[in-house]
Amino acid sequence: MKILIVEDEHKVVDYLRCGLTEQGWVVDVALDGEEGAHLALEFDYDVIVLDVMLPKRDGFSVLKTLRAQKSTPVLMLTARDHVNDRVRGLREGADDYLTKPFSFLELVERLHALARRTRGQESTLISVGDLYVDLIGRRANRDGIRLELTAKEFQLLSVLARRQGDILSKTAITELVWDVNFDSHTNVVETAIKRLRAKLDGPFPTKLLHTVRGMGYVLEVRDEVRNEMRNEEVRNEIHEEIRNEVIEGVRLP
Ligand code: CA
Hints:
single chain, alpha/beta, Rossmann fold, Arc Repressor Mutant, subunit A, five-stranded parallel beta sheet, four-stranded antiparallel beta sheet, 9 helices, binds calcium ion
């Protein structure tokens, strides 16, 4: 999950960045309203945490700019003694609010709820061949065997799984898996793909993670496997038909 935090209090920012990163979230931070609006429009986040009191532009102004173009879920942070801020925030398109000071666990709960709500129809359990990725439980297994993945590897796998069949460029992967400060000139993506591939495909005969030369990476069941599965289905259907015929034949006088 990718989140943008728009907040100017360094203490709150550090606390949230640390806690959320530990839970496997990709965290971008904007320390003022202008930067916040820019990042919110430029990139796609699963959810945005938006403080009301900000330098350059306040949270309401950022929200207004964002809502003119995008429906990214927004949780607003309001001060305890500004009850009107909550009402105004919700009226102007915020999806939820929390009053400072707040508990980290409560914030995480709310963020998950918001991300789930917007995903709506999107399943939180994705399957690709014999691979199952549980986005909420943050687990993945193949052929019933649990894959031991680091937080980054899981994030990478879920990004690929949510867009299975689509070729993702290195730039797209960088954007979705790392934060904006990431230096894309390094070969971190290749290294991460290599590690993930070793765990995901290494022990299994069917490979799911493919490199498309000059374009990027794709997670999918390739045709030879699909054909094999189709053949298996056809074989089963034929068996079924034969069995039915036999049964009918027995029943007939
Ligand atoms: Ca503030």
